[in-house]
Amino acid sequence: MTAAGPASPFLLASAAVPSASSPGGEDERETVLACQRGQREAFDRLVTRYQRDVYRLCYRYVNNHHDANDLAQDAFLRAYRAIGRFRGDSAFSTWLYRIAVNVCLNFRAARKPAAEELPESLPDGVAPVAERMEREEESRRVREAVTRLPEKQRAALILKVYHDLTHDEVARILGCSVGTVKANVFHALANLRRLVGAEAGA
Amino acid sequence: MSKHLSEPDLLDVLEGRASGGARAHVGDCAACRARVEEASGGLERARRCDVPEPSTLYWEAFRAQVGRRIRDEAARRRRVWPAVAALAAGIAVVVLLPGTVRGPRIHGQRLPAWSALPASEGDAGLLVLEGMAPTPEDLRAVAGCEGVADCLADLDDEESRALAAVLRGEIGGRSL
Ligand SMILES: [Zn+2]
User: Where are the domains of chain A?
Assistant: First the structure.
C-alpha cells in the first residue's frame, strides 16, 4: 500500500510501516485463507505482522499505553471472529485498520475524553506555545494535540500521516470520499499547527 | 484573482501533486499561500512526533495475550454450544408442529396480522416450547447462562448465523 504518484511528503522515517504499507502478497492471502480454515497459527502470523501497526494506530487515538494495548487486542479479537467474512475485496491491512479504527471510535464514544475536543475549525488566533521544547516534550504535545482534533480529522490524519496510506485507502477505511479525506487531513494539519504553536516547530 | 482553492486542492499543493493552475493560484494568492504554509507547519510538527516504542518483550506478551483471549473465547463457545443446539432443537420442534408458529388459530380462523396473540394459557405453541426448551438448570449447567435470553445475548455474529443454519437444517426448508 504505497502512495501512488510523487513521493509522499507524509512518510515519517520513524513511522514507516512496511508491514502494513506493502501490498498483501500471495503469502498473506495464503495466511488469511489458512485462518479462514481455522488454523490458529496462521492468525498468530497475522498478529505478529500487524501488531505494531495496530498498536500504534490505537496509541495515536488514546495517547496512552494501557488503553492502546487493550484496544489493539480487541481489534485482533474482532478480526479473528470476523475473518470468515473477509472476502479479499481490499487488502487485509485495510480491513484490519478499519476494525481498529472502529474499536477506537467506540472506545472514545463510550468514555468522556480526557481533553476537551476541539470544534471542527479553530480561530487563527489560538495562542502559540512560545518556548522551544525538547523533542520528547514536543512529541508529547503533538500526540496530545492529535487526541484533541475532531474525530474525522484525527482519523484521517493518523491514517494518512502516521501510516502513510493513500487517500483512497483512507477513504475506504473511513467509509467516505477521497475529497472528504483530503479536506479532513488539511484541516487537521492546520489545527495541529495552531495547537502546537509556532515556536515548537521553529 | 480567481476563487480561492478548496481544502482538497490546497492539500494537493502541499503534497506536490496539484495542477499547474492550482500551483499558480497559490503563487499569486497570499491567503491560499498562508493556508498551505500553515498546514505545512502542522505536517512538520506531526512528523517530529512518534509513539513510544514498547520493548521486544512486550510484543511477545501481546501476541500471547491475544492468543489467550482467542482460546478463552473458543472455550466459552464450547460451553455455550450445547445450549444453542438444545434451543435449536426446541425451536425446530415448535415450528414443525402444526398449529404453533404456522397457526395460532382461534376457532379454525387464521389470525389477522394485526391481531394480538392468544392468551398464553391458550397458546399451544408455548406449551410445546416449555416442554422442549432447556430449563434454566440445564442452561446453567451446560452453558453457564441463566436463561434462553442470556444464552442468545451471549452469541456473537458467527454463532447466531450458525444457530440460524442449524434451524434451517432442522426445519428442512420449511419457511418460518
Ligand atoms: Zn486564494
Answer: 9-116, 128-202
At the topology level, CATH places domain A128-202 in Arc Repressor Mutant, subunit A (1.10.10)
What is the span of the domain harbouring residue B170?
A: 60-95+135-176
The alpha carbon dihedral of B77, B83, B87, B90 has a sign of positive
CA neighbor of A84 nearest in space, from A20, A35, A14, A26: A35
| Contact flag B47-A72 (C-beta cutoff 8 Å) | no
Exposed / middle / buried, residue A127 (Cβ in 10 Å: 0-12, 13-18, 19+): exposed
In this complex, the residue of B10, B40, B59 whose CB is nearest that of residue A51 is B59
- Given this model, what pLDDT does residue A11 score? 53
State whether B51 and A6 contact (CB < 8 Å).
Answer: no
The fold for domain A9-116 equals Rna Polymerase Sigma Factor; Chain: A (1.10.1740)
| B12 shares its domain with B83 | no
Lowest-confidence segment of A13-17, A27-31, A56-60, A189-193 by average pLDDT: A13-17
- The pLDDT score that the predictor gives to residue A3 is 37
Cα–Cα distance for residue pair A65/A63, rounded to 1 Å: 7
Alpha-carbon distance A197 to B106, whole Å? 76
Q: If you count residue pairs, one on A and one on B, with CB atoms under 8 Å apart, how many are there?
A: 128
